[in-house]
Structures
1.
Amino acid sequence: MKVAVLGATGLVGREMLKVLEQRNFPVTELVPLASERSAGKTLEFQGAEHTVHAVGDDSFEGVNVALFSAGGSASKRWAPVAVAAGAVVIDNSSVWRMDPKVPLVVPEVNPGDIKEHNGIISNPNCTTIQAVVALYPLHLKFGLNYVAYSTYQSVSGTGTDAMLTLESGSRSVLDGREPATQIVYPHPIAFDLLPHIGSFDSDGMTEEEWKMVRESRKIMHLPELKISCTAVRVPVFKGHGETIIAKFDNPITPEEAREILKSAPGVVVQDDPASSDYPRPRYCENKDPVFVGRIRKDMGRRNALSMWVVSDNVRKGAALNAVQIAEML
Ligand SMILES: NC(=O)c1ccc[n+]([C@@H]2O[C@H](COP(=O)([O-])OP(=O)(O)OC[C@H]3O[C@@H](n4cnc5c(N)ncnc54)[C@H](OP(=O)(O)O)[C@@H]3O)[C@@H](O)[C@H]2O)c1
């Protein structure tokens, strides 16, 4: 297949190239695309150097699959061009996710939705992907009726500049200086926590929190599911953590949940707190699965569990999920 990657020089784009290579995706021709800024740079893929081109009107001629990770405005501008040229676009931005004509897919949860596509398939928000991979198998057996998310999201979720910001800010603080003025977040992220991902609405909810609510409902086909969410950016480079409190229609025990999750697709149960064994972002880095631990009864509600879910946001939260969709296509 002729595969284009728009945003190939970015954090997600580079990971996409790695995942395509590692999974032996049948790429006969690679078209790495970015903005004018990166035109002429080279990227290595399958042992050869590939020149990056600035995306343009004729970038998608003959392309079968176009993986997009260049932000919302580039997706809006170029996805229709790619589709008109005959490509199927798998898009990492949020612009098409809630469009009823665009499937929003996590292959472990709703692979059947892929066939409804009209040229564009959306890759969900990273935090939502790992949540639904863990929740959906439990829903199938016990019936979800309420979810409360609290997220602990690493800076890589905001891209390359945010990783550099955390690195330089941490050095400044350790050297006794104030971190430099922020361009990525409203406050320095080094050694701090920011409960602010995306802008706030009049109810005090952030964009990221709404993504978790709306995208979880769409992917699991549970439009009425009650969900609350608090999303927090933390000074971790890679890997998102989240606590999930889930309430079910039917009684459920932690043992039953562990048994189901042990055989669930894409999940690894890592749950031996007595040996200090539970999922951690650094351990999950560059790994494919969604790791689940600290599975226990929620003490405040009937038929409810609490769990701790961690995954590599650049990998399963973006690049891997997109390539899995391409494989299913
Ligand atoms: N990081 C994550 O965990 C994650 C997870 C899910 C979804 N996403 C989404 O994936 C997208 C990229 O994220 P990232 O973390 O890879 O960001 P990044 O590291 O900042 O990379 C951005 C990429 O997009 C390209 N780009 C930017 N503006 C462009 C334009 N107008 N035309 C063409 N190319 C353009 C950049 O090219 P240049 O080199 O030319 O600047 C670069 O290749 C975003 O939509 C983000 O929301 C990210």
2.
Amino acid sequence: MKHFAIVASLVCVLTAPVLAEDLGRFVDGELSGLVSTYKGIHAHPELSHHEEMTAALLATELRKAGFTVTERVGKYPDGTQAYGVVAILENGPGPRLLIRTDMDALPIVEETGVSYASHVKSKNAAGQEVGVMHACGHDVHVTTMIGTARALVSSRAKWHGTVMLIGQPSEETVDGAKAMLTDHLYERFGTPNLAIALHDTNSRAAGTVAIASGPALAGVTSVDVTLRGIGGHGAQPQNGKDPIVMAGEFIVQVQTIVSRQENPRDPSVVTIGDIHGGTKRNVIPYEVKLELTTRAFSDKAMQIILDGIKHTAQGVALSAGVPEDRQPIVTILDNESGPATYNDPALTTRVKAALVNDLGAQNVFDEDPIMASEDFGLFGLEGRIPSVMFWLGAMDPLKLAAAQAAGKSLPGPHTSLFEPVPEPTLRTGVTAMTSVAIALLQQ
Ligand SMILES: [Zn+2]
Ligand SMILES: [Zn+2]
């Protein structure tokens, strides 16, 4: 009996789990394959709403790993189908853990010069030809999920419960998480008890991670403003109402919402990223269109911004003497807006402990909240499902150290030069996400 017990425990040790000390070895074995998968995804980026190939690749890999996969989960408000992927692995009773990756790229011409750079061109929603680039590192996230899926299957003796992997489309347009939830994600696949995700960052070296407790990313509201005037000859401004001059006043005035109307202790941002008006130097146009993004953590700060934008537009039009029927049009785009991302403090503590355990305390940093936004928080159903997003360092450590020594930062997400270093970013991503998942999937 004693002999049998020894044999049984030996078998248990041998078949088991990728133990903590073995996880590194497992990830090492997967790494070269994952790096080439990453380079392939990087070279073939797809814009939001168009992640067909990326979603198919993710689905295929998760199926091969042993997950039950459903594709094309998600419905947009216009009725079109989204390329959401849901992959389930049940492993006995225990918590149900959602792990999310996003999949979409950005309309940016890549200028990193890496051998696997994207040369893809596509049409944006307005029908214009644009370059396409994984300039936010969602290719890192997809590849990390593939590696994590394999590691979790290999280590299934170490955890209990259900893993629910989500390949989310359209993060950059802030409507992908919404589309999946609208398509009855939780009714069809079960409601998770916990939700986690990671995002790469240019402010940390590859090999490290960082985590914020509480508010992590700001909420975003997208706003369109059309300043309408009365067009005419450029030499006879007295006969028109010049919307280009109004736009100039609006652009400057709108910044005083944050600096003069907001509580400085409740941070907010107003940025005008796009402006269009006019066709020729000597023609006063009839209107100028501006696209704004606004960020805030609290509902109060966000409301002050939105009221301030309306008042500023109306005030500028009033001072220009614009007639009643040509007042500005201010449109809030609900589909491109989302709430702040809040990292549940108790779950953050557990996630951080797992990260410290497998990466070492010297590689795990506390992070401040940032003004960038995410729609991952929507999976948490307004706090009902504790959720955490942590940061994955993605920069070449030597380049980052040199930049920091010179008082500079390396090009960040949403720029043409954003360049995550594949290794050790992927090694750390897979190790971190697997460690966290195993730590949370305990009874
Ligand atoms: Zn982004
Ligand atoms: Zn992103």
